[in-house]
Description:
Blueprint: E1 3-11, E2 16-24, H1 26-32, H2 35-38, E3 51-54, H3 68-83, E4 94-98, H4 100-103, H5 107-124, H6 132-135, E5 136-138, H7 141-156, E6 175-179, E7 183-188, H8 192-197, E8 203-208, E9 214-225, H9 229-243, E10 250-253, E11 261-263, E12 278-281, H10 285-292, E13 324-328, H11 329-335, H12 349-361, H13 364-372, H14 382-403, E14 437-439, E15 442-443, E16 446-447, H15 450-461, E17 474-477, E18 487-488, H16 503-518, H17 521-536, H18 540-556, H19 573-577, H20 591-594, H21 666-669, H22 680-690, H23 701-705
Parallel strand pairs: 1-4, 4-5, 6-13, 10-12, 13-14
Antiparallel strand pairs: 1-2, 2-3, 6-7, 7-9, 8-9, 8-17, 11-12, 15-16, 17-18
Helix pairs in contact: 3-5, 7-15, 10-14, 11-14, 12-14, 16-17
Amino acid sequence: MGKRWGIILDAGSSGTRLHVYKWLNNAKARHDAKSHELTSLPVLETKKHYTKKERPGVSTWGDHPEDVGPEHIQQFLDHALKIVPKDQVKDTPIFLMATAGVRLLEPMKQKALLANICSYARAHSEFSLPDCDLHIQVIPGDIEGLYGWIAANYLLGGFDSPEKHAHGKGHHTYGFLDMGGASAQIAFAPNSTEAEKHANDLKLLRMRTVNGESAEYKVFTTTWLGFGVNQARERYVEALVDEHMPGTHELLDPCLPSGLITRLDGTPITNSKESDPVLLGTGDFSKCTAKTYPLLDKDAPCADKPCLLHGQHVPAIDFDVNHFVGVSEYWHTTHEVFEMSHKDKAYNFSKYQALVQDFCAAEWDDIKSDIAHKKWGKKVDADTAQKVCFKAAWLINVLHDGIGIPRAGIEKTVEGPGYNKTKELAGGKDRPFLDPFQAVNKVKDVEVSWTLGKMVLYAAGQIPPSQSDALPVGFGSNVAGIPADFQLAGSNSDPVPMGDDDDYLSDVAEDLAEKAHRSGSTFLFLVLIFIFLGYIFRKRETRLRFYRGVGSTFRRKGRPGSPRKGGRRFFGAGKLFGLNTPHYERVLEDGDAANEFELGEVDSDDNENSDSSEGSRLGRASGLATPRMNVVHFDTGSSATSYFDSTPGGPIGLGLHSNGSGTLPNAMDRSGLVVRTESRERLAPTMQKLGAGRRSRTGSPTRQKSPLMTPLEED
């Protein structure tokens, strides 16, 4: 069993998304790893068809929880069973993590809903679900933020290559900002001074690298429930109603495009004789920004200084070293309308504000016409367009007046102590990723999702410790040892054997099957044959029996006692199964297939599912894969840096790609889609032991001792 699998359902406020991940089991990973990979976290992989999303959110079943299984959960179980190999289902953990939508339910309704989900999953699947409280739960916003922080740094490289991400003052990790429909989160590692001053406010996070060594981080994370874009909008409308005289029919709303009329809940007016109060858009973005400012609740009492929004304590942020990436609404609100091609451009406050002002001042009829003509792309509809003015105003207020990210300096970062000149670290060809804030959706075509952070932590918990007295993987209060509130990673560290199955064959078949789906019938027919043969010969014993039968048939045709002629037999094991090749390379999805990488194709409609909610929120520059390659070579001399690209002239966004020199960033160097085998030279001693010039499929001791692998006798 060369691979491990994990399933997680992100049960957000407006929908549920299934994510399936796989990674090498630790025995296999250690066996194949290069030295720098041994000190890295496990490499996770996912694909487009590994993910499924459906509306509405599970909170919809709060009043009738007995129906959530057959009406909602079953479809995700069915989808996961199509992906996870049958012989690994019982070994594959399944998690459902509910966010703000379920947080808003009454405690008794939460409990009944989660209990029904767990009992249904146990009764209708064999996935590993040993502890309902651990596997099926509502996660607090601060934990969601912590998982997001793990995912962001996993992708950007803050964990694996600190020397290449030095921001100064010994700091090498990135801060994380998330905003959904119901809540907003922040997570970052304060500078050393603040970390010491606010040690009791930090969480201790412990992970484990491939070689079994522990890695610890101290992180501050908190959440603001009610500060997501949807709930902030509800509070805004309530305030708007209160400031008008009772009985007023038309309430002037500067946060709606000029001329747009809606009900208070935002639904369009279909009846001109509407008797209830309505909102009439005036398209005044400056006034909209001013009216949304009070929603920050900056004047709330601060019991534990310093505070940011709503009297919530947050250690002082040192923007010289704390560089934040913003996901979900931070990305979608700056890209849904104002960057129709979704190119990765750097966030620029001045240009962004000017774009929003022009858009919101336009007449609604003109905006609708532009939508019909796809001016902003096919995914921008009327609902998106009517909400974007409020969302933009709220985002600007939260970023700059709430969190305190400076407006000055966003357009240009001045070099200072600890300045990292490695342009590959981001922001584009002319500017490093040292700005206080960047909006990001994907890193190397991999979505920055908190679900990835959860599964990275779980996979790290699968690794056996290098020392018998090692502390467990997980997180809790920032105290020595194992704090009382320590939450285990939700996994065991029992080593799993590498196994004898040849994962390469099934992986190639899977990739070809995806290509066949997009190709003609002839190729599809050939692929189906390949998959059929792969299924027949998936077991080593079957391949060996076939090899012996065919080999003996061909040997009988020679003269008894005659020496074998030079060259390889056509039906030799190496020819048929690749055993004699010096090495093999894992076939990756090509450029077109990369577009089908699930989380790499999440655009504006993805902010409908997790709480980050209405926001989409895989892997790390230390290592998760980018699927946008045909073949990945493990080159010890390759670059280990990931970076962001900023296309000149664009106002906003952020992204990463190869550095243009032929080398690949670290995220690709440890690609989760890559499996390596030993070279012929490294296997030569083992091959000689096996005799007769035959090469073992791997150099594992297990294979060397197997009586089935002894050299074939000559006739």
